[in-house]
Write a structure and sequence with these properties.
The protein is of the alpha/beta class. 29% of the residues lie in helices and 26% in strands. It is built from 12 helices and 19 strands. The strands form 4 sheets. Strands 4, 6, 7, 10, 11, 18 and 19 form a 7-stranded mixed sheet that branches. Strands 14-13-12-15-16-17 form a 6-stranded parallel sheet, with helices on both faces. A 4-stranded mixed sheet has the order 3-8-9-5, with no helix packed on it. The longest helix is centred in the last third of the chain and has 13 residues. It is globular and about 60 Å long. The relative contact order is 0.16. The mean pLDDT is 96.
Length: 358
């Protein structure tokens, strides 16, 4: 079986191999044939060590495909079913799940420490307990979510992570109000989805902030009312909000420096929403006086901040209704052999989302 493998954390290239085997099939598990997978910045962060992940590993967590086989005890899934990959499945029984905060369930993270592939040289892990840069993968049944027949695999793959994360940040976590002012820092796939979420919620002004001109242009097509470089952000704050600051600012980069910028561009009493996944040693600081005096809400958003199954359904409904544009988010398509070119395009900001077709 072919798969793209990172041998050591810190390497920037993947090796496409044909001697990989998906393992772990048994009770409660399903074997999937991956048909399409998106390249998410979290994959790059795991490769660099920003996000913790054992190696060697197969990146990829934003995938969709078909069920090949189901293990004993699996209900609701059959061979041939079309599914998307949920990298953070809810166990349904932990305290977070019982409170209705299924996006905080840790069961999926526990899977990341168990190898689900092997090669002649030893075990291979799958990123976030999945690993979709491969032809086949074995995952828990909760990771395979059935999708309607009218949803293409590449669209389902995007919904499996980036779209759900961005839309949910605006809709579930921040609960953007109609007529409000919004700024989105970082306009890759998740940031563009955040822009679309703010538009769906009825924001009056949506300012997209990104250093890459092509991404700024893309943000305008997806609903931003204007798009500026980071150097122009302060001027946009003055012009759009008369210097007061935005009602909502979304940080979709995962860096303390941009989070601090986002905080400073949020109005007193406004909302700063942290969407980007950053490093454990990168600390965001506010002083105790401004924290008290400005009364700004600081809201982290994990995987869209809501029940992911409901969020998938909502994304599909909005896409069907033409309220969000998912097809145009796919700016590049490659086969597995082109994965390293796709990684370079993501690092430079050339791509919004690359679809790897398997």
């Amino acid at each position: 079986m072919r798969a793209a493998v990172l041998h050591e954390i810190g390497q920037d290239k993947l090796e496409v191999l044909d001697d990989v085997e998906a393992v772990g099939f048994g009770p409660g598990k399903v074997r999937l044939r991956i048909r399409a997978t998106g390249l998410c910045h979290s994959d790059v962060s795991a490769m660099s060590g920003v996000l913790p992940q054992p190696a060697p590993f197969i990146p990829g967590h934003e995938g969709a495909g078909e069920v090949m086989d189901v293990g004993d005890g699996v209900t609701g899934l059959s061979a041939g079913d079309r599914v998307l990959v949920c990298w953070l499945p809810a166990c349904g029984t932990c305290p977070s799940c019982r409170r209705g905060q299924t996006q905080l369930c840790l069961a999926g993270f526990m899977n990341a420490g168990t190898p689900n592939f092997k090669r002649p040289g030893g075990d291979v892990f799958g990123f976030a307990g999945t690993g979709t840069f491969t032809e086949e993968v074995v995952v828990g049944a909760g990771c395979a979510v059935p999708i309607p027949d009218d949803v293409p695999f590449e669209i389902a793959a995007l919904i499996g992570c980036g779209v759900t994360t961005g839309l949910g940040a605006a809709i579930n976590t921040a609960k953007v109000e109609a007529g409000s002012s919004v700024a989105v820092i970082g306009c890759g796939g998740v940031g563009i989805s955040t822009v679309q979420g703010a538009r769906v919620q009825g924001a009056a002004q949506i300012v997209a902030v990104d250093p890459v001109a092509s991404r700024r242009e893309a943000a305008l097509r997806f609903g931003a009312t204007e798009a500026v470089s980071p150097d122009e952000f302060a001027d946009a704050k003055q012009r759009v909000t008369a210097g007061e600051g935005f009602d909502y600012v979304f940080e979709v980069v995962g860096k303390s420096a941009t989070a601090r910028t986002a905080y400073e561009h949020t109005r007193r009493g406004g909302t700063l929403c942290i969407v980007g996944a950053g490093a454990m040693d990168d600390n965001f600081q506010v002083n105790m006086f401004e924290l008290f005096f400005d009364e700004k809400r600081i809201l982290p958003s994990m995987y869209g901040g809501g029940d992911v199954l409901r969020s998938y359904e909502r994304a599909i409904a909005l896409w069907r209704a033409g309220r969000i544009d998912l097809e145009s988010m796919i700016t590049h398509r490659v086969r597995l052999d082109g994965i390293n070119d796709a990684l370079d395009q993501m690092r430079t900001g050339e791509s919004l989302r690359t679809c790897v077709e398997l």
